[in-house]
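Input record (one chain):
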Amino acid sequence: MPSFDIVSKTDLAEVDNAIQGVLREIAQRFDFKGSKSTLTREESAITILADSEPKLEQLHDLLKTYFVRRKLDPAALDFGKQEKASAGTIRQVVTIKQGIDREISKKIVTAVKGSKTKVQVAIQGDELRVSGKKIDDLQETIRLVKGLGIEQPLQYINMRD
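The corresponding structure, as predicted from the sequence alone:
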């Protein structure tokens, strides 16, 4: 029976490459000379440290730009709240979204069941497995899920016949 998986994964090696690109640009730019602005990644969280709020906004833009350059979706970034750090700096933790959480999974399942296509959707941890008798039904399901406007990047992998 044909099937495919719906997943939400971000390649952390490419995230590291994007962060290194941002750090190189910070080192070269005149407006960041003498600045304490840095980015570090631990697990699936990026910590941004900036001197002021405008520099923090510039770092957001740079991070999103380098994500696009590395063919990563900037929608995978979940910007946390800003907090004061030592020496008058501002710290912000950016979470990298990995996996599909329960609410989004349920939203996708109810939308697919409401569409009356002849497919079955199974939640498998932080992934969804969609299976049906015809590949055309599976492709229609992919179009339906893309049309839902989910704010998290989704990948459709393992299409099997």
